[in-house]
């Protein structure tokens, strides 16, 4: 646990200003080897700017970063030899085949000759691209490009993998594969720095998360810690028979600790003779209470679902602290 020698990333008051915009503002954090670290924030929060500073692509305006004890601003090459970065919009050469793309990067990253072919084949296989190994990237779909870019990120078996919104634009099957890949990397002791907007994704994969807003760190900790701040902002969706609506609204509004009950437009429910009610101020732990109230009063209950808090809920809860 937390021995100083296991720290792979440290930032101290890291700051980057672009013209009049402070993209990253006084950011201090540490990340231990083997962590899956979630970096959450709205568009323009400063996530990508942080990743770029940690990899020596741009220099900080103030403050400092250390990656493997090295300063990325002056020792970028040595840092990048041990990091893999999936950028937001990976550039791929459309004239190369998938195999040649990976071979090219294997050469750049000095992957030993004797393991190159095996590593490439394994990655193509993992990302379900084996049957397209000899096709030109120009003919690839967006999801195929993203999977190839992920394979490229891993070609030199980096110790830290930075993934900048790796699942954006992917279909559900490809998203599941990326999540499995992150779990697999984590089991092998790699450190993963995951930028995402998606709280559910972070919740599922990350050991710790940091929430960034307008360049500033709002909170950092494990997901339970953040979750405890969130309890009051949760909602539960309940579907009852449309004929029970007035009674149900009245009943739920009187069921502690429900703060408010309101009918919600939901076409899927309406098509099936139901109506959706949103209960505010209650979370997963209150589901049994809500169910019991419904049963006791003979409501025709079709569905009950605690809703995942959104990133907005997190901001809201954190700002109220
Ligand atoms: N090269 C640049 N020149 C000028 N401004 C920049 C530059 N790069 C980033 N910024 C600004 O810095 C802020 C943070 O941008 P950044 O790309 O780090 O956000 P982000 O959290 O990655 O957002 P997104 O979720 O949209 O990818 C934004 O206001 C952005 O306009
Ligand atoms: Mg970004």
Brief summary:
With 321 residues, this protein is of the alpha/beta class. It has helices spanning 47-54, 76-80, 98-108, 113-126, 142-153, 172-187, 199-205, 223-230, 245-253, 267-271, 287-296, 311-319; strands at 7-18, 21-32, 36-41, 62-67, 83-86, 160-164, 191-196, 208-213, 216-221, 235-241, 260-264, 274-280, 301-306.
How would you explain this protein's 3D organization?
- With 321 residues, this protein is α/β, with parallel strands linked by helices.
- It folds into 2 domains: 4-226, 3-Layer(aba) Sandwich (Rossmann fold), CATH 3.40.50; 230-319, Alpha-Beta Plaits, CATH 3.30.70.120.
- 36% of the residues lie in helices and 27% in strands.
- The strands form 3 sheets. The protein has a 6-stranded mixed sheet, with helices on both faces.
- Strand 6, helix 6 (172-187) and strand 7 form a beta-alpha-beta unit.
- Helix 3 crosses helix 4 (113-126) and helix 8 (223-230) packs across helix 12.
- The relative contact order is 0.13.
- The model has no long low-confidence stretch (mean pLDDT 91).
- Bound molecules: adenosine-5'-triphosphate and magnesium ion (MG).
- Residues 18, 21, 23, 41, 43-49, 88 line the site of adenosine-5'-triphosphate.
